[in-house]
Each structure stands twice: as C-alpha cells, then as structure tokens.
Amino acid sequence: MPNIKVMHFGLGPIGAAVVKQVAARPGFKIVGAIDIDPAKIGRDVGDVVGLSRRIGAKVSGDAEKALKSTRPDVVILCTSSSIKKVMPQIETILNSKTAIVSTTEELSYPGYTHIRQAKQIHNLAKKKKVAVLGTGVNPGFAMDALPIALTAVCERVDRVVVNRIQDARIRRLPFQQKIGAGLTTEQFQKKADDGSVRHVGLTESIAMIADALGWTLDRITDEIQPKLATVTISSEFLAVDPGYVCGIVQDGVGYRKSEPVIKLHMEAYLGSPETYDSVEIEGSPNLSMRVAGGIHGDVATASIVVNSISKVLSAPPGLHTMRDLPLPSFFPGH
Questions:
Q1: The model's pTM
Q2: Which of 139, 194, 319, 328 can bridge 201 by disulfide, Cβ–Cβ 3.0-4.6 Å?
C-alpha cells in the first residue's frame, strides 16, 4: 500500500498532537500543514510541533495553494469548535477533492443543530467524491459512540446516563481557560452567555444517541454552572483562590414524552477528587460501565482522529458521523 498523504490544517495543541501521532506511525506521509499564525508559516512542520526531527514539509498560510501543490489524500482539520467558522475551510478543502477528518465539535452530528450547513457539506463532498467526518473523544466517543455501542446487547433501552468527570489540572491551558478556571462568577456568566466558556457537543451527542435508538425527542437542554473553589487550587498554569471559578458543571438532557431519557453530565474542574467516565444503560439488561481514571481528552482526541483516517478514505462520498461509519479501532499503519 502506498503511504497515506496527510495535510494538517490548524496546529494548535490538538493539531500538533495529531501531527506527532501521524509522524510516529508507518503508512502515513505528512505532505504539509496550514496555519494562520505568522510565527509558524514557512517553518518545517516538525519544528513547529516540537518533534525531534524535521518532517521535510513546511507550514503554509495559503490553504488553496498548499492543497494544490501537495495533493494530499486527507486533511486533518483542527481549527475551531464552530461549524460556521470552519465552513470556508471545509469548502476550500472539498474543492480540492480531498477527504476530511475534523475535530470541529459541531460537525460531530450537525444534522440536528446545523441542518443547512450539514446539507451543504454533504452535497459538496458527494459532488467531489470524498468523505467528511467530525470526531473526537467528546463529542465523537465517550458520551455518544461508546454508549451507543453498549446498547447493542440490549433487548430494551429505557434510559441512557453518561458521566464524564475530570480533574482539569491534567489538561492543557486552553482547556482550563475554556472551563473558566480563575474567573469571577460574573465573568463566568458573561462568557457562558457568549459561548466562550462551555463544553461544545452535548446537544450533538444526545441527538446522535436518540437517532441511533430510534427515539424522537421533544427537546434537548444544555445547562452550565460554575464550580467554585473552596480552597486555593493550582495547576501547572494557574492558581484559583476560594470563591473563584475552578471549572464547569454541565448537563445535557434529552426529553422523550416529557421524560428525561438521555442524561449527559459533565464536570471538569481543577481539583476534582477523581477522574472517570461512566455509562449506565437502564433497560434489559441493565448495563453499568466505568473507565477508572477517565479517557484522557487530548491523547484520545488525537488518537481517534488518526485511527479514523483509513475508515474515512474507504467510506462512500458525503458527510459521515461516528454513528454510520464502521467502528474505528487502533490503526497501527502498515
């Protein structure tokens, strides 16, 4: 098999983590990267992400030009959580007839929240004869694909409850900022209202689970509250005094016939006494699963992206989700 030619679009913390995995696995060839940061443009991809060796491919600021000159098989798109923000990037990539694996949270299951954009992407991808996938650890696995897979052994499902509890001290600085660590309650509320502090994807995950189970929901709610520090808590990056925000508590609920049938509960804050992921399926049989220590967000996101590349390249053209793609697994390369 020839090497899979990979272009990296966006070299933030997650984009860089994906580069490191792709560079370490046989069967992949990094042909370039795209980023808007002037400090990265023109440099070797390996230097930019902190690899001990050079890749022999440079970072470009011009997506169209880079795609045309390198002709990759797939683009890994890691630039924004918002589907509206990435639409021009997706169009540029698809116009070059290149498949996409993206970490854009809203792209993980856009048929419920962003119907117009989902149709546009699907139609353009079909026209250009390539596949597109939005994935990640959450959304994309821990709170949707994993519980969906567990229901395969049920004769009846009444309710799905998923918990993701994280001590955010182990996560990178942008994640700690995204959960509002260090803010006052007033600052937190303002940022929660404008959407800059929150986990994006609970609504998408709930819609994915409901569709997989054939449930029509009345409504989906997604509510966020600040978690306040009771003692001074420090991470590698910042310290939070008592009374200040140290993270978030967020609940997504899907209602069916006025009953809460899908509950996704997430806590991410500095100093959480434990970190774990759990899934409870109420039905026949009842199922209870707990991942002690949790699924590490950054490592797992980069891994699921790399492990999904081969599935996306063999998928029919169009926009896909983790629900309709064949189950990905660790891909060692060749």
A1: 0.95
A2: 139
